[in-house]
Amino acid sequence: MNSAQEHGVNDGAAGPATRPAAAGATLELLVHGVGGATPEHMLDDPRTVRISGDDTAAVFRRADDAEAENGPTAPDGRPVPEAYVWCNLTSGNGARALWLLLLPFMVANLAHWMRPSARDRARTVRLYGLLVRLVGLSLTVLLVAAACEVALDLTAWQCAGTRACAERHTWLGFLSPTASGDGWWSPPGRRLALAALLPAALVGLLWYLSRRTWSAYESEQPMVHDPGEDTARSALGRPGFWYGRRLVARLRGAHTAAGLLTVAAAVAEAAARHDRATGGPAALETLGRLLEAALVLGAVLVVAVVCRRGRSERHLDREIDASLVRHLPLGALALLLLALVYACWERPGWASDGRLPGDAAFGGIALAQGALVIALAVVAHLLYRSDADPRTAMRGLAGPAVAMLACALGGVMSGGVSQRVADWVDGTRGAIPGAPVLLTWQASVIPPLLAVLLLLAGWQAWRTLRLARAERAAVERDYVDEAAEADEAKDPQRTRRIARARAMATLTDRGPLFVAAVAAVSLLLGTGALAGALTTGRTPSEAARTAHPFVHGAAEAAQALGSWLIGLGFLLFVALGRRAYQDMSARRTVGVLWDVGTFWPRAAHPFAPPCYAERAVPDLTWRITTWTRTTGGRLVLSGHSQGSVLAAAAAWQLTPAVRGRVALLTYGSPLERLYGRWFPAHFGPAALGALHEEVGCWRNLYRLTDPIGGPVQLPGGAGPKVDCEPMRDPMAHARNDLHPLPAPILGHSDYQADPAFDRERGRLLDRLRPGLPGQRPGDAP
């Protein structure tokens, strides 16, 4: 720690260093939620200055409060507001809209953090992390295999090798055999070698993006803890939790090598299969077998590296396995170059016919993913049984279900792009065999999956309607004081609107049912598609040709509709990314997805979008620690929505002495409602209960109309001491002197508009007056 950091000097910041002349300073550090916010909006003042930070994330104050600590304390006792703006970490520029294409990787990474809490099951916990990392590795292989299917099989092997198809695409003319003779690139092996540059470039792009985001995010080191200090009783308080540099670098090397080996295998296998079948030169056949053995050895090394070690959280791990990270991708690149040279060798009489062995490749990937998900479910169930919590989502099976969704997303994206490219190069002419049969089967199961989802959505809509009707009586009871004053002010239509808003807010609590249904149906239908493709070797319509006419018609309809839907879904996905690149409002919407999905460090997949909390949490920790140390004042850490999750993570990272001098004010907070249920190992009752005991004091505000925020509900009677009574929303049912116009239903926004906000913040500050002890378990603020 340098001297500037030691004394809280803001190097390059717009505001001055905090050196108060008078004690008793109070500060409210505001942290916004998803979707972003401007400092002007957060501070309710058009004149703001940056106190510390850069264009990516910074702390702002009102211009009049820039040197508030050097002046007298505000006569009304209000704290100085300070806004931490972090929205540019996730939605700052248009290039980040391309992160949509990395969605399966992000979902797989979430599965790592969804493991159930466990007691004395360290080996089982490590096995859980290992299985998720293997699922992530399979997704990388699937993505590169899909790129190979498009570039090598559909384009270079099938279309360029078929004169009728190549004539419709003039840009393939130099690759296609012609009546006047073949060009240098016309032989199949050379076509495959040239086309292999596309998937290899994709792997290089993923490597570059991962390394670039690593430099921008994970290079920010958190505040170093003294090993002798008693840190928070949560994994989020460990010194190395928000510094995953070593693991990400190791996984990046392994996944890059896996991608390059996949491309090399696609090229080498086609040439080696021809050499074995035709009895070509012995030297070529021997070279092919040696190359295949080297590829198998490389794959074993990649799997061994992925299995070797997980995250290091108990200490700040600055070391990187430099030789492993560097040599493993270079070795895979050398094998790829050798495979390209081997494929380019002259082979008279070799012509491309049929498909490359894509069905075997995609079938093996699908089989491996299914086995990994089932094994992950067994391990998750064992962990849940060791420390069962009824509020845990899906009884501990949320992680395996989300891993299944990641595999399904990867399958949809790979199948979608393959189907659309096959239709583009050939259409309905039938000049080429087209995409692998397995991808057609996978597309055919999408209509029944959507049918199940529509039935489930209809059932949930009916339940919500019934709940809204039942909620009307509760709304009338909550506003009985207004009804007693003026019966003519009753508005049945407004009562229905409030009841409907409350009922709609409960849909969040039924999210696990949707995830469980999609995951289970996807697993069952995916298994059926794999079995159908492997046993028949034909498309669903061809396999059902001799069946009953109704069955045959249903198979044809499912195949056609599924192919159309999978292509439409992929095109909509790309269109959303394009629109987000051009439109700021759409970019902000995409940013909301990353605000929720990229809170967690990359522990299972190095190509997932980067973790913004690895920058935001150290920022907050540094600001809180330096301000309290230099002023000796009181600080309220005020977090809304996702900002409350960042606030809790920052509080866990503080030293016990500083943590006890900080009050936590959360509102619209998903700490228990979402994070506690979906991530029980890190935000479960034990972790939140420990946070309640360790911070100076804590209050949580929520509304019944809020679909995201909710009560903390700590066990043992502590919950009511943290949670306030539900805030009224709207603040008035009918028009009155204070609300001559109808009060809006705020839901998840504008918690500061309620007078209860200032009242609860004032109570927290009273608890933090100098000389008073910190909050004890069971004390009410």
UniProtKB/TrEMBL annotation:
Biased composition (Basic and acidic residues): 756-769
Signal peptide as annotated in the record: none
Annotated segments matching region Disordered: 750-781
Spans through the membrane: 97-115, 127-147, 192-209, 247-267, 287-307, 328-345, 365-384, 396-418, 438-459, 513-537, 557-577
Biased composition range(s): Low complexity: 770-781
Keyword annotations from UniProtKB, A to Z: Membrane, Transmembrane, Transmembrane helix
Name recorded for this polypeptide: Integral membrane protein
